[in-house]
Amino acid sequence: MRVLPRSPWTAYRLFLAKLLIAASALGLGACASLPDNVERPVSHAFNAPGTTPLGRLVVASQPAGASGSGFALLGQADSAYTSRISMVDAAQKSLDLQYYAIKQDASTDALLARVRAAAQRGVRVRILLDDLNASGRDAHVLRLMADRNIEIRMFNPLPGMRGSMLGRILGSLGDVDRIQQRMHNKVFIADGALAITGGRNIGDAYFGQGQDSNFVDLDILAAGAIVGDLSRSFDAYWNNKLAYPVESLLSQSEMEKLLGPVPEVAVPKKEVSSEAGTTAQDKTPAPKPPLPDTPSTIDEGIRTGRLALTWAPALMLVDKPGKLDPDKEAPPEETQDTLVDGLLRLMARARGDLLIVSPYFVPGPRMMEEFAALRKRNVRVRVLTNSLASNDAPIAHVGYARYRHDLIRMGVELYEMRAESQAAGGAFGSSGLGASADSRASLHAKTIVMDDRILVVGSMNLDLRSQLQNSEVALLIRSVSLSRAARDMIEPTLERDAWRMALDGNGKLLWRAPPKSGLEDERSEPGASTGLQIMLKLVSPFAPDEML
Predict the structure, then answer these.
(1) What does the CA dihedral 134, 135, 137, 141 come to, rounded to 10 degrees?
(2) Which residues are bridge partners to 155 per DSSP?
(3) 3-state SS class at 211
(4) How far is the CA of 486 from the CAs of 83, 108, 157, 166, 383, in angstroms?
């Protein structure tokens, strides 16, 4: 089997970062610190969506007698991208973006150009970004702080220069909790009327445009009352003491270096009010991004006057911002109530079928107990996760690998994503737009389908990091049609693009090739280099589950 290309530094950098974190836990501290007495003007989400075209479109799209909120699955990478573009272009009052990572590449540049154009026509823009990845090239998004009507805050920031992630980790040694605890939420809200949440960050690889690798992911478009819940969650994080205005974290020299020449469409920044702007400003057209020909669900809705949505009861599940506070006193384990804890209680109620998609899957003892209880009740449990070759964070594979034998023995149907798959374009079971023929598929969707009636789509992984370290957000939707639609997206990947895990007669792992694939069964990590496998075996004894 061909071993797919991977940056030779990826696993090394992750391993080194873990060693640095471990060193900090042993007391090798550094003197960098965060600013004191930071001003954080309180602001709130726009709460009158019915006064905007998007809000009126949502109202017109709700069938008579329908209750709950409206939803549309965004499984295709191009529809996930164009839907965000459409929301930005149609927004008149506010855009609220909350992300773990915003990469610096062509897809991001085109999207942010539209965001800047929206700000110039009077739309208030708030961008809340986890601080860990906003360094090096990916600090580029911070240039928007110079634009009128745009505010940027960094959540749970690390002190130090932004030249590289490694340098910032070195500058934070001695504060292991701050390094480990990250805001992993992913929310995109326009005019308080429409929202997108799910697994995708912002960047080429999330939208099927990566040349070396693309993420197979799933988002969901939401409309109606649930958007108000997502907006209130955004406000809770935005106004939290861990959210620092980006200007407070940069020295004058860093700011000058970051901003460089004034961008072509930038205008002098003015103070942003606590409520969304209501007056139109000078309009400067944004560069047109390379978009697919297929219109988004939102474009079609604007054209026809009706969005194609499924209306259903739903709940927002979200961790509280205080989960990431390094100064908080940790609650006793039995009193913890995180998003993942809630999902464990939900899954325990499965009656017949549980389908889980989790790219980083490190169950831990409690989750293993839940799976064992489900199997004793003859509940079918299927899990799709990454293989070592498809995993963009191979160090996470160390924790997952510890549980494979036990999962298979208890009857869990375990599937590992093939790196060489039809999903290399960033969508379940399809080749996708703009992907290189040699690009690697990497699973990134975070989804649960229970009994064909409950669907969960969010930012969380089923691992101890999401449970104990990161903050997460998800939507829980009670809908037979949406649950079946999600299942119908996922099952072809299980059948065509995943290895089925098994044990041979001697209890050794066996990777069963997909039927009719022309591939042979494998007896060691398919597609992964020998060097990577050896390195992870060496690391394994020093890598606790909760740090993976």
Answers:
(1) 30
(2) 130, 243
(3) coil
(4) 18, 27, 36, 38, 14
Under 8 Å CB-to-CB from 167, ≥6 apart: which residues?
A: 135, 160, 161
Identity at 279, one-letter amino acid code: T
In DSSP notation, 284-333 reads -PPPPP---SSPPHHHHHHHHT----EEE-EEEEE--GGGG-TTSPPPPG
Consecutive sets of 10 residues in the chain, 548 residues long: mean pLDDT of each? 41 47 46 84 97 97 94 95 96 98 95 97 98 88 94 91 68 71 97 98 94 93 98 98 94 80 42 42 43 76 94 98 80 71 97 98 96 98 97 93 97 96 58 50 97 98 95 98 97 95 97 94 96 91 80
Residue spans of beta strands (DSSP E) within 314-429:
314-318, 353-357, 380-386, 413-417
Nearest to 150 by CA among 100, 96, 186: 96
Are the C-beta atoms of residues 91 and 227 closer than 8 Å to each other?
no
377: which 2 tokens?
């009740």
How far from 43 is each of 40, 175, 233, CA to CA, in Å? 9, 30, 13
- Size (the chain), residues: 548
- Two structure tokens written together for 429: 């079971």
